[in-house]
Specification:
The structure holds two protein chains of two kinds. Chain A is mostly loops. Chain A has no helices and no strands. The radius of gyration of chain A is 6 Å and the shape is flat. In chain B, helix 7 runs antiparallel to helix 8. Chain B has a two-stranded antiparallel ribbon with strand order 1-2. Chain B has eight helices and two strands, in the order H-H-H-H-H-H-E-H-H-E. Chain B is an all-alpha fold. Chain B is about 70% helix and about 0% strand. The chains are: A little secondary structure, B mainly alpha. At the A-B interface, loops of A face helix 1, helix 3 and helix 5 of B. Chain B: Its main location: endoplasmic reticulum. Chain B: It is a multi-pass membrane protein. Chain B: Keywords: Endoplasmic reticulum, ER-Golgi transport, Membrane, Protein transport, Receptor, Transmembrane, Transmembrane helix, Transport. Chain B: One of its GO terms (biological process) is protein retention in ER lumen.
């Protein structure tokens, strides 16, 4: 699960 | 970055270019829902606030700026420059019915209760349903010009390609984000009926016309 506030997608 | 995501981004970019060219060349935004375009502008502005705080890559930054700038430009063209051609009589979907539930959902289901994160989550939920006013407009007029159909096909394909990207990332990197996956499925499903008509009619050279 990704870290919040680090969205690498568009 | 994998091939599905790149194709998804390019499809998204293509959709926007097709729409901008259509409006600019024909000097008209007939058949396009201004409501959907306002929602898309809200989507990109609220999602890409992290442009200020987080650097991911030059590609990422470039695309975000393009999406914000073009979405604002489209709204400007529709509501100011080519206002006379805007089909407001048919574009009657009430956007508060989309804005309020997606905002409430973002407040309830998110990764972290911070302003930036809630706005990001809101943008994901809102994007998944932002096309509804456009689909509503097409159903009201009963038809869509082929260029509008190409735009909708490219726009719908983008999240579908992202679904393949998420499957790929799940197996390759063990990465998954349930919020975007569920919203992406909803978003893609909303286009299914349109995809069917596009493939069976528009690709065979016919106009997209809904059965009476």
């Amino acid at each position: 699960v990704p870290d919040a506030e680090e969205h690498d997608e568009l | 970055m994998n091939v599905f995501r790149l194709l998804g981004d390019l499809s998204h970019l293509l959709a926007i270019i097709v729409l901008l060219l259509k409006i600019w060349k024909t000097r008209s935004c007939a058949g396009i829902s201004g409501k959907s375009q306002i929602l898309f502008a809200i989507v990109y502005i609220t999602r890409y606030l992290d442009l200020i705080t987080t650097y991911i890559s030059a590609y990422n930054m470039f695309m975000k700026i393009i999406f914000i700038a073009t979405s604002i430009a489209i709204v400007y063209l529709m509501y100011v420059k080519f206002k006379a051609t805007y089909d407001h009589n048919h574009d009657t979907f009430r956007i508060e019915f989309l804005l309020l539930p997606t905002l409430v959902l973002a407040l309830l289901i998110n990764h972290e209760f911070t302003i930036v994160e809630i706005l990001w989550t809101f943008s994901i939920y809102l994007e998944s349903v932002a096309i509804l006013p456009q689909l509503f407009l097409v159903s009201k007029t009963g038809e869509a010009e082929s260029i509008t159909s190409h735009y909708l096909f490219a726009l719908g394909s983008y999240r579908g390609l992202y679904l393949l990207n998420w499957i790929y990332r799940y197996y390759g990197e063990n990465y998954y984000d349930l919020i975007v996956i569920v919203a992406g499925i909803v978003q893609t499903v909303l286009y299914c009926d349109f995809f069917y008509l596009y493939i069976t009619k528009v690709l065979k050279g016919k106009k997209l016309q809904l059965p009476a």
